[in-house]
Amino acid sequence: MSLIKTENLTLSYENMTVISGLDFEVSGGDYLCIVGENGSGKSTLVKALLSLKKPVLGNISFGDGLLKKEIGYLPQQTNAQRDFPASVFEVVISGCLNSRGIRPFYSAKERAIAAENMKRLGIYELRQRSYRELSGGQQQRVLLARALCATKKLLLLDEPVSGLDPMVTAELYELIANINKSGVTVIMVTHDMNAALKYANKILCMRENDYFFGTVDEFRKSDMADFLKGGGEGE
Length: 235
Prior knowledge:
With 235 residues, the protein is an alpha/beta fold. It contains ten helices and nine strands. β1 and β2 (16-27) form a beta hairpin. It is globular and about 50 Å long. Mean pLDDT is 90; it is low at 231-235.
């Protein structure tokens, strides 16, 4: 059953249509990579999947018991966010905010979930450290642990390895792949076609008024793959 399905989705940005008639679906256990050229609407689509932007036409439906608030989101970081003055534990457990509701304090269960995800991402020993003092790779692990605190079903990752060196990038990709293998569905926006083809089982490729959605093998045989080999990909 589909976790997320779009039908004839049309989205606008600053009163201009950036996505028109987009259809795709994500099922439990999928690893979908969203790739494409600059200005094709990837960022706008992410906002729509998070219910932060309403469609102009068409719709986005959630199935298999997935609630909108249960999407674990790892956004692109700004310089200001990298300097956030909080402990690693405080950042990670903030992923439980939606489940905490109006309660003033986190429960023992939520603290256990945060600890479990820090151990899963290899950052438990850093839990008392200041987030702003960490390396870029460590910060991304913290944010990934935070996203996992919000969900057991679906991670939405927006350029998760941006600015990281090759070794740290490779380690983070493997962590994400292992999370996916454990049963968590992954949607990742990326400009790294090599990673998309290596890890994903489905590709959504976006160009202006032109889209491809299908398996990796189908994508390799498509005209869109030839376009990206020519240097058309973008963030």
